[in-house]
């Protein structure tokens, strides 16, 4: 990483019924969980969304009247940047930007735990709606504190979903029904072909090959991430969507621009 700011794409995951109790005061409004991603071209493979159970979130009103659920830290950053949603080619300042102060429109704190099991619509995903699940390795001081899950290409995402699928007691701990995980199979998004290996679901492939069995397996996960991220960007070729057949390094910008143009994403720099 360089010294310049990181450009994240915030994907707008719309909250749908059954409406979470903690968001009751904004029921009926356009409410989005907004995960930060560096890999917008992988959004075809979304199977769920992750929050930190013990993390603190808020619901922050945007200039267009919609509401973003994210960390307060990210809401403040967004307020200072103004909306970079370029659907009309213009600069739309966030209503939240008032003397550097942002205030959640939902009274009290929203714990990640309160969002678990909520259903959201994920743009480009093959699944109609996906669910909010726990990820204990989320950092609240990075991005928005919300992560969208692409188990085909992100080892952290794969192992956390795998654990929830395999361990009923883990689901019980968080009050999650089997429906929130059972039908969400890994979706191939891009092919990585090197001299040694080829896979259409490289994170799943490497997690299995390295016998990663827990999200606490930090060393092995690091290895899986190093391998898949490096090759994903430089060698990956899209398998699905409008840019099937295109190199990942080119598709990344194209999908990012499409998501911004359709109003399904905004940019966030930090
Ligand atoms: B990426 P960087 Cl398919 N805590 O999106 C932990 N991880 C976070 C986070 C947070 N607060 N905010 C974002 N992230 C994840 C997709 C993806 C990502 C794929 C492959 C690689 C990849 C699907 N998850 O990231 O440390 C998000 O996961 C490779 C690094 O800020 C985000 O992009 O540079 C990435 O980490 C941002 O990581």
Short characterization:
The chain is built from seven helices and 15 strands.
Structure commentary:
Residues 1-270 form the Aminoacyl-tRNA synthetase class Ia domain. The chain has a single domain, classed as Alpha-Beta Complex (Isoleucyl-tRNA Synthetase, domain 2), CATH 3.90.740. 46% of the residues are buried. Strand 6 and strand 7 (67-70) form a beta hairpin. It is 27% helix and 20% strand. Strands 8-6-7-3-2-9-10-5-11 form a nine-stranded mixed sheet. Strands 4-1-15 form a three-stranded antiparallel sheet. The protein is of the alpha+beta class and 270 residues long. Mean pLDDT is 92; it is low at 83-92 and 94-99. The chain binds ligand A2H.
Q: C-alpha Rg, in Å? A: 18 Å
Largest sheet descriptor? 9 strands, mixed
In the CATH scheme, the class would be Alpha Beta
Mean pLDDT: 92
Give the N-to-C terminal Cα separation: 13 Å
In the CATH scheme, what's the topology name?
Answer: Isoleucyl-tRNA Synthetase, domain 2
Low-confidence stretches: 83-92, 94-99
Assign an overall shape.
globular
The share of residues in helices is 25-40%
Number of helices: 7
Assigned CATH architecture: Alpha-Beta Complex
SSE order, one letter for each helix or strand: EEEEEEEHEHEEEHHEEHHEHE
List all distinct small molecules, including ions and cofactors, that are bound in this structure.
ligand A2H
Tally the beta strands: 15
Family: Belongs to the class-I aminoacyl-tRNA synthetase family.
Protein name: leucine--tRNA ligase
Keywords: Aminoacyl-tRNA synthetase, ATP-binding, Ligase, Nucleotide-binding, Protein biosynthesis
Organism: Chrysophaeum taylorii
